Structures are given as structure tokens and as C-alpha cells.
What we know:
The protein is mainly alpha-helical and 79 residues long. It has 4 helices and no strands. The chain is 72% helix and 0% strand.
Amino acid sequence: MDPSRYQRVRALTEQLLDIDASSRAHQLVVLTVGDETLRADVEALLKSIEAADQSDFLEPARRRLSSEYFGGGEQRYRI
């Protein structure tokens, strides 16, 4: 994807993120009329952003570090 195309996809994605999720699909069609490739690119970026928002991508690392440094978080330390 060339830089100008990326800027267009990014700008449309940001615009769509600013509106209510229930209105996004219709607004996406309006904003990308006649350019199915642009619509697909924006949809893909929106889906990846929504998936990232719904997942806790740090959880596996948090568990590993907890296990390595704190014995799984189950040990209690006495002073």
C-alpha cells in the first residue's frame, strides 16, 4: 500500500471510530462508494482495532513474568 493510500485508509478509519458503532457500516458504504478495495482496507483495519481492544494481548507475558519472578504469585513472603 502506497503512503497516500495508507493515509486515506487511516483518515477514514479514524473518522469512523469517532461515530457510533451501529452507524459505522452504513457510513463506511457512503464514504467509500465506488471503491470496494478502499472499503475492504478500512474494514480490515477497523476489525483489527476492535479485536485489539477486546483482547488482553499482554496476559501471556504477565503470566510468564509472574511465574518467573514471583513463583506464580502463590508464594507469600514473610518479613
